[in-house]
């Protein structure tokens, strides 16, 4: 009988698999299952700890690659190898031993290309070869689904292609990250930059999207515009209306007033010429993908995308919701069948009650042709007890209720409202007024009421009759054009997903539409967290702002593929070919190498005009190290004292010090070193007076820095 070893991606996943069977033994590194119908000889479940292995670092290939030097670029190993991730040696050794003893190995990592990458990277590093590998492919950790999945294991043909696709992506991201980060950092450090830049295929264009919005806001010039507004007094209440004119030229608006004999603040009479009422029906929202859930949770509770993913992952591991890392808004008829059976139970869990309009599948939500690897996030068959619900954290309750309400809403009635449009004529000039009245809440009753109603923007109109005479006062209303608003974190997730709309190349647009933009459902939240950690962006009151460091990064990469989602489009187009067996990993890596060569050749010329900005960070190598010998006492050294430079022999009486900034320009370590050693610098750009100016710097007899306008060399 075969010895079956199952590799889960992480311990919580392994625990969920084990709970679908009978456990014989639990240890620190594996779980032994008792023999049963699925595994007649029993089985062993072991696990990774996320990424149990990782690609080697540059210095693991060559010690000299540890130091950042321009002449070493490009860094391209002949062959790429993995190593065991830090702190995970014990678990790796346990997995290796179990793989060596196995007759059949089952890949039960997450069902996506990264899950394939994690499994095969571990398998490759163990050195175990020639053993049959099968694939578990499920969307839920419910016991029934787990048992069904293990009874219907797939072969690994598709899995191997996904591994090739994922490895090509991983190695290429490594090559771009390692080489581009060093290239841009070292070239900017030559110009006085005192920190380092981290550059990546997905994170850099994401920062650039935020930078573009920053530029739109910064360059926006608010301008006045004018309209004619009427205030009307009907028998049953007052209301406002606007004439059909909106112009920057106040004279044109005044001319229309004059043409109709209208004067401001004059009591006039209007006539209601038309009352147009339309009943509108709004269907319930589509089922949730991860990004729509992140977007709604950010809008409703200000949760950041990473927080939402962590929370829904916990709910998945508690077997309350289906697989979270999905980009699909549809389910198949199989899932719909169990959802229908559980409608009453779901209503009790959400503490609501309504009679379903229909229990038949609707193509808006149930469409098997739209489902590929994963379906939408919905509740599992397990309807939680009130006790289990009360044991959830506040975040978990909010997210679970949102998924529950969205799923139940497909059985509810439409949201119905009445839209009213009035046309009131004053001296033959028509004024339009619009209003909205709720007729039936329908599916909206399942969701928490928004704290600030969007409907508040549309005035509630009084009941008026066609032909009714109303009191009227008209006047010119002045308003100002408004700049675009910064993205919220929820909007940024959507922006990353739909950024293809901004591209000019139609092929890129189509590919980005297919692959859904920058990153994946699984990685977008971690990308946002990465660029926060790199200090490229900051979030204030849920709004995302680019920092000085982020602006400098964007100015440096402007005009290159690193600033554009096009690189992702081009990569994903070919990566898909690899996954489908139509492309080659070797060809893809060769193209990546050519891209890096081109970048190394072109970047020195393209960043000449980039303005180096102070980011408030320090490179470790410069901090607390002597910059130069003191030009006065020769016994001390000039040191960086955080807010200024000064001689280390100040206790012995040497008072030499230099400012960090002079006339709006940062003075770098290199500039100070040149002044100490040569008493003069070359001509430097970027000083600010009434106008920007350039000058050399010199040290005078009292060791003070002066401008040297005579030195033109």
TrEMBL record:
A single Gene Ontology CC term: cytoplasmic replication fork
Topo IA-type catalytic domain sequence ranges: 159-600
PROSITE patterns (UniProt xref): TOPO_IA_1, TOPO_IA_2
BP-aspect Gene Ontology terms: DNA recombination; DNA repair; DNA topological change
Top-level lineage group: Bacteria
GO molecular function, one term: metal ion binding
Enzyme nomenclature, EC number: 5.6.2.1
Pfam families per the UniProt record, alphabetical: Topoisom_bac, Toprim, Toprim_Crpt
The protein's enzyme class: isomerase
Keyword Metal-binding: yes
DNA-binding found in the keyword field: yes
Keywords: DNA-binding, Isomerase, Magnesium, Metal-binding, Topoisomerase
Catalysed reactions, as listed in the record: ATP-independent breakage of single-stranded DNA, followed by passage and rejoining
Family: Belongs to the type IA topoisomerase family.
UniProt-recorded name of the protein: DNA topoisomerase
């Amino acid at each position: 009988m075969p010895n079956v070893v199952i590799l889960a991606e992480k311990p919580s996943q392994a625990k969920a698999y084990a709970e679908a069977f009978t456990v014989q033994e639990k240890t620190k590194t594996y779980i032994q299952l008792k023999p049963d119908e699925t595994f007649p000889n029993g089985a062993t479940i072991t696990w990774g700890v996320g990424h149990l292995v990782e690609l080697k670092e540059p210095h693991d290939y060559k010690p000299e690659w540890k130091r950042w030097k321009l002449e070493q670029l490009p860094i391209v190993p002949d062959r790429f190898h993995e190593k065991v991730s830090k702190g995970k040696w014990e678990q790796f050794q346990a997995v290796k031993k179990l793989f060596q003893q196995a007759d059949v190995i089952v890949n039960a990592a997450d069902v996506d290309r990264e899950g394939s990458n994690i499994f095969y990277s571990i398998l490759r590093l163990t050195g175990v070869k020639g053993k049959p590998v099968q694939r578990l492919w499920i969307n839920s950790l419910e016991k029934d689904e787990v048992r069904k999945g293990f009874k219907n294991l797939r072969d690994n043909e598709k899995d191997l292609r996904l591994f090739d696709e994922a490895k090509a992506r991983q190695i290429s991201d490594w090559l771009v990250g390692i080489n581009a980060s060093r290239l841009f950092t070292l070239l900017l450090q030559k110009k006085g930059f005192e920190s380092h830049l981290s550059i990546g295929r997905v994170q850099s264009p994401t920062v650039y999207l935020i930078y573009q919005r920053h530029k739109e806001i910064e360059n926006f010039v608010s301008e006045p515009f004018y309209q004619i507004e009427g205030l009307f007094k009907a028998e049953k209440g007052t209301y406002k209306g606007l004439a059909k004119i909106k112009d920057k030229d106040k004279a044109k608006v005044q001319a229309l007033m004059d043409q109709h004999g209208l004067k401001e603040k004059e009591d006039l009479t209007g006539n209601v010429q038309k009352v147009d009422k339309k009943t509108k029906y709004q269907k319930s929202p589509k089922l949730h993908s991860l990004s729509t859930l992140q977007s709604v949770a950010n809008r409703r509770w200000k949760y950041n995308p990473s927080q939402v993913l962590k929370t829904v992952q916990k709910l998945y591991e508690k077997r309350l919701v289906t697989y979270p890392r999905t980009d699909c808004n549809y389910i198949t008829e199989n899932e719909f069948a169990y959802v229908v059976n559980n409608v009453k139970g779901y209503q009790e869990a959400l503490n609501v009650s309504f009679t379903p309009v229909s229990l038949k599948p609707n193509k808006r939500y149930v469409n098997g042709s739209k489902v590929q690897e994963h379906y939408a996030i919905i509740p599992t068959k397990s309807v939680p007890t009130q006790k289990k619900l009360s044991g959830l954290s506040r975040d978990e309750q909010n997210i679970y209720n949102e998924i529950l309400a969205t799923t139940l809403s497909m059985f509810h009635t439409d949201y119905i409202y009445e839209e009213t449009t009035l046309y009131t004529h004053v001296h033959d000039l028509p004024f339009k007024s619009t209003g909205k009245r709720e007729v039936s809440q329908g599916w909206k009753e399942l969701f928490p009421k928004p704290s600030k109603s969007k409907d508040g923007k549309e005035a509630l109109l009084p009941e008026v009759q066609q032909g009714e005479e109303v009191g009227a006062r008209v006047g010119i209303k002045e308003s100002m054009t408004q700049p675009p608003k910064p993205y919220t974190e929820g909007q940024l997730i959507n922006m990353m997903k739909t950024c293809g709309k901004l591209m000019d190349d139609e092929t890129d647009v189509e590919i980005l539409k297919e692959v859904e933009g920058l990153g994946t459902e699984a990685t977008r939240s971690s990308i946002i967290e990465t660029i926060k950690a790199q200090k490229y962006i900051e979030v204030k009151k849920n709004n995302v702002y680019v920092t000085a460091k982020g602006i400098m990064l964007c100015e440096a990469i402007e005009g290159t593929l690193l600033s554009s989602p096009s690189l992702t489009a081009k990569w994903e187009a070919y990566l898909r070919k690899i996954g489908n067996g139509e492309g080659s990993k070797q060809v893809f890596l060769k193209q990546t190498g050519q891209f890096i060569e081109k970048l190394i050749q072109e970047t020195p010329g393209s960043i000449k005009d980039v303005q180096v900005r102070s980011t408030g960070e320090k490179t470790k190598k410069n901090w607390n190290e002597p910059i130069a010998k003191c030009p006065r006492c020769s016994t001390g050294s000039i040191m960086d004292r955080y807010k200024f430079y000064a001689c280390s022999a100040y206790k012995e009486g040497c008072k030499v010090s230099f400012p960090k900034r002079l006339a709006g320009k940062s003075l770098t370590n290199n500039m100070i070193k040149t002044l100490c050693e040569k008493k003069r610098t070359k001509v430097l750009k970027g000083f600010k007076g009434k106008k920007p100016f350039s000058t050399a710097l010199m040290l005078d007899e009292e060791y003070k820095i002066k401008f040297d306008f005579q030195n033109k060399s």
